[in-house]
Structures are given as C-alpha cells and as structure tokens.
Amino acid sequence: MRRWLNALNDSVLNHYRTRIIGGFAEPFYKAATGDAFAEIRFTHDYERSALHELGHWCVAGEQRREQDDYGYWYAPDGRDSTQQQLFFQVEIKPQAIERHFCSALGIPFAVSVDNLGNPAIEGVTEFGHAVDDCYAGYSGNGLPERASEIYHCLARWKSADPGV
Question: DSSP per residue over 10-64, as a string?
C-alpha cells in the first residue's frame, strides 16, 4: 500500500498541496496552514480507510477543504436513527467514489454504515442501492475531476504492479 500512497502523493495530491497519511486512531482531514500541506489522515494502515477518506476529499469543495474535517459534523458510533439517516445522505457520493478507487486497485468494496454500536440500523439496503446508483452514474457520466485523477493514478499504478 505504501507504494500506491507514494505515487498518489507525488503525482496527484502534491498539485493540490495535500498529502494522504496513515497510522492514525481516527480519520481526520487537517486543512493546510501557511506553508504546510493539507493532510488526509486515515485509520491505522487500512487501505479501505485511505480510499474512503480520499472519497470525502474528492467531494469537498474548495471552501470545505479550507476547514479541518471539511467543517462537517460527525456523530460518533451509536447514532440514533435520525443521525444515521443524515449520515447516509452525506456518504452516498464519497462511498460511490471509494468504490471506483477500490475497483482501480482490484480490492473488494462494501458500503460502510459506520455505526457498529447500533446493530438494528434502518435503511441500510436503501443506502446500498443509492451508492450503487451513484457509482453507476459516475461510471456513465465520469467522475469529478479530482476523483478521476486519483482513479487513473491508482489504475496506472495497479497495471504497472499487478502483483499487488
């Protein structure tokens, strides 16, 4: 994984004054300050966490990328039904993009509900369908610009190193 992260940092994210870095207990986006690059921090060394956080970065507009964690709320594990439905609404596009990134690297994708403390989550099936529909839309109409750059970088890296 380190090799595709390095390729991504060097060939795509550098242009945006951003780095993706693993090894953290929780994911977090740290906005750029002064001469310091922005940081997309992902959990431990998990590929899926990295790809998921990249999906969020691709969806965030320029003003959002100027704020830590894009200026969004986050309710921790144990969300109630209303909070979970709000979570689903903001997760459709990032997870559809994440699915494209997984495809580029040839790794399995499954939607994340990110609410392990609530085993009886309503709307998971509908959420999965919404992510599938968004994924299909991006497949037919193209990914947003930054997502497309990342997808093509990952696909090039994978084709150059297919044993990974």
Answer: HHTGGGGTEEEEEEESS-EEE--BTTBPEEEEEETT-HHHHHHHHHHHHHS-TTG
pLDDT tens digits, residue range 57-69? 999 999 999 999 9
**Residues 98, 57 contacting (CB under 8 angstroms):** no
Phi, psi of 19 (to 5 degrees): -130, 145
Query: What is the residue-averaged pLDDT of the chain?
Result: 90
List CB contacts of 88: < 8 A, sequence separation 6 or more: 113, 123, 126, 127, 130
Please list, in sequence order, all residues whose beta carbon lies within 8 angstroms of the beta carbon of residue 79, skipping any fewer than 6 positions away: 87, 115, 118
Which residue in 40, 34, 52, 49 sits closest to 12, CA to CA?
Answer: 40
Q: What is the pTM of this model?
A: 0.92
